[in-house]
Design the sequence.
């Protein structure tokens, strides 16, 4: 089975709920142990991580079991901070207060690194809406429920030559603590003052009445599909693998950009990433697609039992060094060569310190 076929099969199973049930069950599994790596967090990179895990088992080490629980960025941060997984994943980076809390709890610093980039796309249920042009003000109005029909004057103005359906818009959002929500709402807060004043940014916001929530990118995708007027924000990989129609979004320079490899890469070209890897992607112009998120992984400098730290280093070094083919095929954007070297240097710090004498290890 090809990589894309595997990803499509997996996501279709997820959308009908089978994988979601399995992942909920996985939360009750035993604590990680020798010969097993467990991570948890964002649903955004799930297709990519599952591909990497499969490829690593087939081509590198079939004795190591690697499990990734796709539970949302909020859950990934929580489980990482509580030390119940070997690594956490989120589309929201750890703030200074998070890092201070983590170091106090563990007795050594946490490590956070960007792993990949990906667009957050505005997806529709109706194939005829593919390419519909929307700007931040229109998207804000749709999710605030001040724009409730596809024939609204604001949407018609952005699409003057397009026949629009006379249909109620059903906005779909994440119901769990979500890094995808953080990326989406951070962009809206930066672009639309009304959104900033009314809802703001975060992994959870107070969604207005008349919107529909779903857990994970999987739940949002399912709810979009179930409503003829459905519109929601999901990872580009989910949209591509499931062939979802999606919006063209106006960027900071006023240019409409359809989410694909070229426009996402164009938007990232001028990105300057600080040494602490704490950054948001905002103000994308030129030919770039404007709503782009980062996937971060979190690790520890100490406290891993047995060979766990070495296994983590080896797997994630392999993913960074050899995983770009899957990154591109599944609709993400890879790290550039210079950033890769910075990330690899950080990964080499996993488990390099002894565990504190009053603490345990994983």
Sequence:
């Amino acid at each position: 089975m090809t990589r894309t076929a595997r990803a499509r099969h997996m996501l279709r199973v997820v959308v009908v709920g089978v994988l979601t049930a399995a992942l909920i069950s996985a939360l009750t599994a035993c604590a990680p142990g020798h010969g097993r790596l467990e991570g948890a967090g964002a649903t955004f990179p799930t297709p990519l991580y599952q591909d990497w895990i499969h490829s690593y088992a087939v081509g590198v080490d079939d004795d190591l079991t690697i499990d990734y629980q796709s539970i949302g960025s909020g859950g990934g941060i929580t489980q990482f901070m509580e030390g119940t997984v070997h690594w956490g994943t989120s589309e929201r980076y750890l703030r200074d207060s998070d890092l201070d809390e983590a170091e106090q709890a563990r007795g050594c610093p946490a490590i956070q690194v960007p792993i990949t980039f990906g667009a957050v796309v505005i997806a529709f249920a109706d194939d005829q809406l593919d390419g519909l042009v929307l700007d931040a003000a229109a998207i804000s109005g749709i999710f605030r429920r001040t724009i409730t029909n596809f024939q609204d004057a604001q949407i018609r103005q952005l699409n003057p030559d397009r026949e629009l359906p006379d249909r109620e818009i059903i906005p779909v959002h994440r119901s769990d603590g979500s890094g995808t929500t953080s990326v989406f709402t951070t962009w809206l807060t930066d672009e639309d003052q009304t959104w900033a004043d009314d809802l703001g940014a975060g992994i959870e916001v107070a969604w207005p009445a008349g919107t529909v929530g779903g857990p994970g990118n999987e739940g949002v995708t399912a709810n979009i599909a179930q409503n003829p007027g459905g519109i929601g924000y999901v990872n580009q990989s989910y949209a591509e693998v499931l062939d979802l129609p999606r919006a063209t979004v106006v960027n900071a320079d006023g240019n409409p950009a359809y989410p694909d490899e070229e426009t996402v890469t164009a938007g990232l070209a001028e990105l300057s990433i600080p040494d602490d890897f704490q950054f948001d992607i905002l103000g994308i112009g030129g030919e770039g697609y404007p709503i782009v998120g980062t996937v971060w992984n979190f690790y520890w400098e100490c406290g891993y039992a047995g060979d766990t730290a070495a296994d983590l280093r080896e797997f994630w070094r392999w993913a960074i060094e050899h995983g770009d083919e899957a990154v591109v095929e599944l609709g993400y954007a890879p790290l550039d060569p210079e950033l890769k070297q910075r990330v690899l240097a950080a990964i080499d710090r996993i488990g390099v310190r002894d565990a504190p004498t009053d603490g345990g290890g994983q």
